[in-house]
Amino acid sequence: MKHTFLRIRISEIGALLGTYLVLSLIYHITLYINRTGYNNPDDILLHPTFWFDDAGLQYSLMFIGTIVVWFFVFRVFQSWVFWKRLLLHFIGLPFFILFSWQLYYLVCEALGMGHLRGSGQVWDIYIPTLIYLVQFGLIHAYEYYIINQRKLQYEIELKNTALKSELSAIKAQLNPHFLYNVFNTINASVPKEMEETREMIAELSDLFRYQLKASREDLVTLKEELEFVQKYLKLEQKRFEDRLQIEIDIPDKLLNRKIPPMILQPLVENAVKHGISPLVKGGKIDINVAEKDHKLVFEICDTGVGVADKNTVFNKGVGLSNTQKRLQKMYHSSLKLSDNVPSGLRIQFEL
Questions:
Q1: Where are the domains of the chain?
Q2: The domain 244-350: what is its CATH number?
Q3: Burial class (CB in 10 A: 0-12, 13-18, 19+), 72
Q4: Residue 24: CB atoms within 10 Å
Q5: Among candidates 196, 273, 195, which has minimal Cα distance to 233?
Q6: Neighbours of 311 (CB within 10 A)
Q7: Can you give the pLDDT at residue 316?
Q8: 271 pLDDT exceeds 70?
């Protein structure tokens, strides 16, 4: 934390110093007005500077003592529960009194300055005690105020974040919904003789309809996710023609298992875009799902160019990095990348 001393903000120390200057001034004025009231030599050791210099010294010592107690109670042991920190004042109060009373007397005597004696010494115990109780009561109230303000600020930021997330979710739903309707409109305007184009538009519309569903639901069946991936690959095959081959091996008994939506498509898209697309001859993509120890084991393999540095692959694209984050947060799982044989990349993960 910047601009602090003993982890206490300079502005707070300045406010405390100002308070002690005012208290010292009041004490000086009080002593001056009542200076004729001390006629017993046992109550006071007279000295020409007593009414001014020694009182300032005592309040300076109380100021230093306050900083020390503040540091320990409100900084070193800040994590303690409130009642335990209150018990620390049973140590802090005697320290504060002795520091501003006995040490003050020792310094006064060493410098030849006067101080209260006899029954008058009770004021050098009573006044520091009163100041200690009042000032640390106010400091605890100040701390509670700061904590409450931070809590309110945090709640406001949390509400703003939640609102932004809600608006983003609404936008994520509106965009594919809007495009889905537009594609249907375009499809209706395409002449019947362009049947292949109409089919491609219909399949693209289905992709956006699934994306709309994925934005609303946490889980879908493996069958639904697979149908979405197949539609996507079918459109890619229109572009690659015979350069892209697909093979899918998933037992029928697993098709009703629930998985997160859009978990396979980014990985398949990565295989097409970064694996197969750079090769003139094209390649093949294999999608396999099996069950092991009551978990689904996914494997996406391509015969593309492969990845030399697998440690940095998550920093290059959004699809792999986002999928990795989803797996880690939802299933404490992760993507495992390895070389495919004879060429390309193999991606595996478990749910």
A1: 4-158, 244-350
A2: 3.30.565.10
A3: middle
A4: 19
A5: 273
A6: 8
A7: 66
A8: yes
